[in-house]
Amino acid sequence: MNIKLKTEELKDAINKIVKGLGNNKMLPITEMIGINVDKSTLSLVSTDGTNKVQVVIPIEGDNEPTSFVVNGKTFSQLVLKTTTEFINLSVEDGKLVVKGNGSYSFSFPTDEDGEFIVIPNVEVDKDTKVELSAEDLKNSYNINKSSVSVTMETPAYTGFYYDDNGSVATNSLKISYVNKKLFSNPILLNAKLASLFSILPEEKVYVYQGNSEIAFESGNVTIQGFKMDDVSEFPINDIIPFLTADLPHKVRLNKKALLNLLERIAVFVTPFDKNSIKIDFTKNGVRVWTLDGINNEIIPYTDSENVEETSIKVDVTNFKDLVGSNPEEELVIMYGHPAAIKMTFGNVSQVLALVGE
Hints:
Elements: E1 2-6, H1 7-17, E2 32-37, E3 41-47, E4 52-58, E5 66-71, H2 72-81, E6 86-92, E7 95-99, E8 103-107, E9 130-133, H3 134-144, E10 159-163, E11 166-170, E12 174-178, E13 187-190, H4 191-195, E14 204-209, E15 213-218, E16 221-226, H5 236-244, E17 249-254, H6 255-266, E18 276-281, E19 285-289, E20 296-300, E21 303-305, E22 310-315, H7 316-324, E23 330-335, E24 340-345, E25 348-353
Helix pairs in contact: 6-7
């Protein structure tokens, strides 16, 4: 094997492939990058033990098929720090030799039988192809990640739910929903798999579903993972009433002004406050207080409808997360429900549970 690559092309592939690495010390393959060469392509492959990422680079020459793995961190750092126009990859004396600014070698890890460890290329059953938009997939993740659970008390809450109505995520205290159909059948994707939508390079994405596997193919990138088994445990029927509720009181606020206010007020929130703040809906604006009643700030509405003066308490971190996920300049807050407030912008609805006394 002796391959000459444009450095920038390899860097672009590396920046994508490292997103698929894991850090499971008990599963060393998750810290390695697989390199699979055939006559006309070089494929980089990474895995976190559940999901796989593959990036294919066309190469010249008539190369003998070969496969091996290298340390992902070391190899990626070397490539990203190389400043020459081209990088040469070759196998010499049983090692990968990388030549750019200098000459560097990588040993090939072996298994218990002394065989080279490999990460096979992604294999996809293409009988069930559906075309989706990369922008829609990325947007659904960027909005809903603010609500997905990061703990395993309820495994279904750690996933991103999709059906023919749109996509939803919740941790039971907050809900995010994007009203954009992506999948006809209800599925639940793990958070790492959904995060990999960010590396899809082209707008057109082909999706392939099996009984348990799912793959996304865009340009020279393929992402493969598994649908979560907990889809039936996701409480979509309990969530829908909150998403469809038309609460009686509505105010419109500048997103940046509200987010900056929350950043300032959060400085004064203490553990004794249970991470909570008080919000007063006044006739002219929202006034936010620390629970001790000392620190406060008000911002005016840009518009309002049927304002009723009232006070609520919310978790400041959860509130910031939801507001921060809004890509638009303004958002609407709807209130009047005894247990939650609702925020909307564009085709997005978000629900935040109130903090009780």
